[in-house]
Write a structure and sequence with these properties.
The complex is a heterodimer of chains A (about 500) and B (about 110). By secondary structure, chain A is an alpha/beta fold. Chain A folds into two domains: about 290 residues, Spore Coat Polysaccharide Biosynthesis Protein SpsA, Chain A, CATH 3.90.550; about 160 residues, no CATH class. Chain A is about 55% helix and about 10% strand. Chain A contains 19 helices and ten strands. The longest helix of chain A has 28 residues. Classes of the chains: A alpha/beta (about 500), B mainly alpha (about 110). At the A-B interface, helix 2, helix 6, helix 8, strand 8 and helix 13 of A face helix 2 of B.
Chain lengths: ~500, ~110
């Protein structure tokens, strides 16, 4: 009797673990629901026309190909010219960067400043701190915009951001960075779609919660008071200096706002190898943030300077950890399903169906709403939006939602019992296996003919699986205590604003 | 689609000033004292904005709010469409609950 009870309990535990595999997707859908709540909870009522004297800080290491256009666009902003200066911190560049900046100094006297580090290569945070020390050295700067050398601002973007600084409770503002490589390729279009979900939707939702996870490294506007409160320096001990800055700002009682109607454009990686390097850096930074703020998660909001931050709220914690632990959810869900299957449990198939029908519903909701949030990107990237989960996932989703049709297809194709069992094992184990395929997408690309194989694998396993594999790799790197080398993403100046 | 999302400025239309003199932020003027709680000229100096009319600013904010209202409607529409799909699927494609682990598939 006790053995039976144990078996039943074990089976239910396994079922719960299987169903937990849907939690990250449900959290994603919840974030989209929160984004819809931006209609009621936003910061616009506190906005006023504001044009603080703004210093733009651009860290640059061998950015000669992209800098000139970025500076030109910044200085053409709809902003009082005498209230806008650009500081380029040249991190010991060996290309044309110094010449480009000097030419811009001559073209815009008093509005472009070239700062040079003779010893570079220590990472972006060190480069930023070099510029910060100079900019904070006098009283001119009232607001600081940190951006990247390849980011192209639209004319209204800066003033659309500064209007939030009229509210002294706001310490920092970030904008919607869109993928701007032209002509781009399949990978940049995947990234373009990803940015709708990760920025336009997710950060709107975070505005609603009152806790922002990250100020985009390429467009973060700080008030002077906020920078001084942060000690006038950017954290140099991690690979996620922008996330640390975001957290510290909120922990010190200042609000961080995402302004979805301030748009700028950035060049994104066109190869999986470059994307992997970039995302591994981000993911490792997230591991570091998760550990550094381990006493923050799921704690009651604190009140500082009369304002409550919500970094410790249940909602924010769930959203953070669902994304952070998604590979673990995938692996354990598959393992539990296979255990149910191989122990002959009748619950395996129903649990599998519930898991995948839930995934289907969240996929349809997220994809549909994401495409409506940003129709401009949707026009370019809708095929990548549809294929975001990958072909195999879509087949499994279809099979789960329409099992009668799948069964009829199996009969028509004369699938034998053994083949059916093999297909079942494959489907049950796919969530975990997709991480391996996602990793292979990166591994095969540099080899001869690998680009095509990588592309095929990417469409089979999905872009999401590639990102999850990268997240898993970040756990491994951090566990191993790998060096914190700053692998800069190469930029070639392919950003073009839409006509 | 007449306006791209996230770009209310294009519908609200900021007006460019006539000349450099008109663009002055008046940062040194009385309005430059702003709402900063920690002293002048440290946070978000508010100016009456001779460069960009308050009416244009208000129009931009209205456009942003209009977009956000539309977003909520879009979310509701997508949810409704999803619900319809699920109901249709239940009505026309649902199988009776299948039993039996390995044997239940294919």
């Amino acid at each position: 009797m006790s053995g039976h009870l144990l078996a039943v309990t074990g089976e239910w535990i396994l079922i719960v673990i299987v169903l937990a595999g849907a939690i990250p997707e449900l959290a994603g859908a919840w974030q989209f629901m929160l984004a819809a709540g931006h209609r009621w909870r936003n910061h616009y009522s506190a906005c006023r026309p504001a044009f603080p004297r703004t210093a733009v800080l651009i860290p640059a290491w061998n950015e000669g190909a992209v800098l000139a256009a970025s500076i030109d666009r910044l200085l053409a902003a709809e902003y009082p010219p005498e209230s806008l200066r650009v500081y380029v911190v040249d991190d010991a560049s060996t290309d044309s960067t110094p010449a480009v900046v000097k030419a811009k100094e001559a073209q815009y006297p008093g509005r472009v400043v070239h700062l040079r580090r003779e010893r570079g290569g220590q990472g972006k945070a060190h480069t930023l701190n070099h510029g910060l020390a100079v900019i904070l050295g006098d009283d001119w700067m009232e607001a600081l915009l940190i951006t990247d050398a390849d980011v192209i601002f639209e004319p209204a973007t800066l003033r659309t951001m500064t209007r939030h600084l009229a509210d002294p409770a706001v310490g920092a503002v970030t904008s919607y960075i869109k993928e701007g490589s032209r002509p781009g390729n399949y990978l940049t279009r995947f990234i373009g779609y990803e940015y709708i979900t990760a920025q336009a939707a997710a950060r709107r939702g975070q505005n609603v919660i009152g806790a922002l996870a990250c100020l985009a490294g390429g467009a973060q506007l700080h008030s002077r008071a906020n920078l001084l409160a942060l000690g006038g320096r950017i954290d140099t001990t991690s690979l996620a200096e922008d996330t640390f800055t975001t957290f510290e700002t909120q922990l010190r009682g200042r609000q961080v706002v995402f302004e979805p109607h301030a748009t700028c454009w950035a060049e994104e990686p066109e190869s999986v190898t470059a994307l992997w390097k970039q995302r591994l850096r981000w993911a490792r930074g997230n591991v570091q943030v998760t550990i550094r703020y381990r006493r923050l998660w799921f704690r009651q909001p604190l009140r500082r300077r009369g304002r409550t931050h919500h970094l410790g709220s249940l909602t924010f914690g769930l959203l953070w950890f669902c994304l952070f632990l998604q590979p673990i959810f995938m692996i354990t869900s598959s393992a539990a399903l296979l255990t149910l299957y191989f122990t002959g449990s009748p619950s395996a198939w129903p649990a599998f169906r519930v898991l995948w029908v839930t995934n289907a519903a969240t996929y349809l909701f997220i994809t549909g709403l994401a495409l409506l949030i940003d129709p401009q990107t949707a026009r370019r990237a809708w095929p990548q939006a549809v294929m975001f989960p990958g072909l195999v996932n879509l087949v499994i989703i279809t099979e789960s939602c329409f099992p009668r049709a799948a069964r009829a297809a199996a009969v028509a194709l004369h699938v034998s019992g053994g083949q059916a069992a093999a297909i079942t094992v494959f489907a049950y184990g796919w969530l975990a296996a997709s991480l391996v395929v996602g990793y292979l997408v990166k591994v095969v690309e540099p080899h001869r003919g690998g680009r095509l194989v990588s592309l095929l694998l990417l469409y089979l396993a999905g872009y999401g699986s590639l990102l999850c594999a990268c997240t898993f790799a970040s756990y491994v790197k951090e566990l191993r205590g790998a060096d914190m080398t700053w692998d800069k993403t190469e930029k070639t100046g392919k950003v073009a604003l839409p006509g | 689609m007449t306006a791209e999302p996230g770009r209310p400025a294009e519908t609200g239309g900021p007006e460019r000033p006539e000349g450099p003199a008109a663009e002055g932020p008046a940062a040194e003027g009385p309005a430059a004292e702003g709402p900063s709680a920690e002293g002048p000229s440290t946070e978000g100096t508010v100016v009456p904005s001779p460069a960009w009319q308050p009416t244009a600013f208000a129009a931009e904010i209205r456009a942003a709010l209009r977009y956000e209202r539309g977003l909520a409607v879009k979310a509701a529409a997508v949810l409704a469409a999803l619900a319809v799909l699920l109901v249709l699927r239940q009505l026309y494609f649902a199988l009776p609950a299948a039993g039996g682990g390995r044997q239940s598939r294919a």
